[in-house]
Amino acid sequence: MRVGLDIGGTNTDVVALDQLGQAIQSLRVPTGLGASTVAETAEHAVRELASLIGCTVDDFESVGIGVPGVVDPETGQVRHAVNLGVDDLDLADPLARRLGVPVRVENDVNAAAYGACHLLELEGSAALLNLGTGLAAGIVIDGQVSRGAAGGTGEIGHIPVDPAGVICSCGQRGCLETVASGAAIGRMWPTDAPIAALELFDRADAGDVCAVEVREIFATGVASAIRVLVLTVDVQTVVLGGGLSNLGDRLLDAVTEILRRWENGSAFLSSRHLPERVRLLPVALHAATIGAALIGATGLGVPVSLRSPAASLD
Ligand SMILES: [Zn+2]
User: Fold this and answer.
1) Distance 147 CA to ligand 1 centre (A)
2) Predicted structure pTM score
3) In the predicted model, is pLDDT for residue 125 greater than 60?
4) What angle do CA 117, 306, 102 make, to 5 degrees?
5) How remote is the CA of residue 180 from the centroid of ligand 1, in Å?
6) Centre of ligand 1 from the C-alpha of residue 107, in Å
7) How far is the CA of 176 from the centre of ligand 1 (A)?
8) Alpha-carbon distances of 255 from 39, 81, 238, rounded to whole Å
9) If you ran DSSP here, which 8-state letter would residue 32 be given?
10) 161 CA distance to ligand 1 centroid (A)?
11) For 149-190, what is each residue's pLDDT tens digit?
12) How far is the CA of 168 from the centre of ligand 1 (A)?
């Protein structure tokens, strides 16, 4: 069995895959914040999963972990995971010693991109555009996660697109993340509703002029991010993931409508076939945990095309 963890700011999800890549058991535990507590959460989650399955940790052949922040998969070092309260954490080796199982660590968006390629059976190159509180992309080229020189591949949320825009959390002005993210919707559509994005889309569908305008700004930002990914890396597929992808077809429709509008004004853009490259990650697919499990098992640099059949929790 191969185990994958997705450590988020609120919860840690863990899954066990069998030899065929099928999910056989999963579990969610609350994430404790701070370096030592995050490591304890990971260990606890793996042990808890073993006890749920009725096996021992020794029955696990590998553990892969997706975690936010700057991750060095070679050393297992995690830095600047702000929403975990982690500045610097040596996660892989100490955990491997405690569990007695090989542990690999990867950035969570990269793990989700890898998992999405596996689950959606995508060949060639693909990007997962993670629409969460922030905005970032994981990029897989020819079956391998692209990391860049310093682990910063896919940080497209901090590409400035509006010189007159608001100041971003990164200190620049008018970044993509200031219009195309959960935080951006929260700022542009202040509400007491539990899910601001859902209320925004509901109100826009009902014809509220302000809501239509905010949805347009948001969807244009997402479309811009897709355009950046296709024009820089020429990925065959851009998968919309992250919490906002729960908006489903309404998100996909709003974004593709803008891409088609752009195509009408540009023969060049039209030749790139942007709308046809966009897909939605189905809500039920736990791309980050499954991607982490596969990365943990295959190690670095093994193409995703050598994977086992598609896994599912359903
Ligand atoms: Zn920024």
Assistant:
1) 19
2) 0.91
3) yes
4) 90
5) 11
6) 19
7) 7
8) 38, 30, 12
9) P
10) 10
11) 888 899 999 999 999 999 998 999 999 999 999 999 999 999
12) 5
Exposed/middle/buried for 54, CB within 10 Å: 0-12, 13-18, 19+?
exposed
Q: Do 61 and 101 meet the contact criterion of CB atoms below 8 Å apart?
A: yes
Distance from residue 165's CA to the centre of ligand 1 (Å): 11
Distance from the alpha carbon of residue 175 to the mean position of ligand 1, in angstroms: 5
Average pLDDT over residues 28-55: 95
Strands 126-131 and 237-241, bridge-based pairing: parallel
303 burial level (CB within 10 Å; 0-12, 13-18, 19+): exposed
Quickly state the pLDDT bin for 299 (edges 50, 70, 90): low
Distance 167 CA to ligand 1 centre (A): 8
16-34: pLDDT as tens digits: 999 888 899 999 999 999 9
**Which region, left, alpha or beta, applies to residue 117 given φ > 0 means left and ψ of -120 to 50 means alpha?**
alpha
Q: Please give the average per-residue pLDDT across 271-282, as a whole number.
A: 96
CB 298 within 8 A of CB 111: no
Q: From the CA of 208, how far away is ligand 1's center (Å)? A: 29
The rounded Å distance from CA 96 to ligand 1 centre is: 35
pLDDT category, 308, cuts 50, 70, 90? very low
Ligand 1 centroid to Cα of residue 174, in Å, is 7
pLDDT confidence bin for 196, thresholds 50/70/90? very high
Cα(127) to ligand 1 centroid in Å equals 20
pLDDT score recorded for residue 313 = 41
- If you search the block for the tokens 């966009």, which residue do you land on? 278
